[in-house]
Amino acid sequence: MSTTIIKITRNQSIETNAILFLEAHGNYTLLYLSSGKQVMAAASLKSFENILPKTNFCRPSKSFIICKEYIKSINYQLKYLVLNNKRVIQISRRRVPTIFDEINTHSLNQN
């Protein structure tokens, strides 16, 4: 996984490989880090979607962007993802085919 540094606030930057997933809160975004820490950023999820590398991140629903590296399992029938921290992320109906393709392609590239 390639590492990119993104600026969160004036004084704070985070490496992309430390991000588990991002959750939308209106015009703010809550970043969940692999260390267990949470960071609130005054930017929309859309702005992070434009910054984060598409090879490592995907957007399964309107409210979440996840790092593909931290996907533990996928339930294809009920259409949800389970992350390494046991967080369950539902995949929105219209994004199911795209997300499954992205994740499968990512998994194949890792092997």
UniProtKB/TrEMBL annotation:
Matching entries from InterPro entries are given as: LytR-like, LytTR_DNA-bd_dom
Among PROSITE patterns, the record links this protein to: HTH_LYTTR
Q: Which segments constitute the HTH LytTR-type domain?
A: 1-105
> One Pfam match, by short name?
LytTR
Q: What is the protein's given name?
A: HTH LytTR-type domain-containing protein
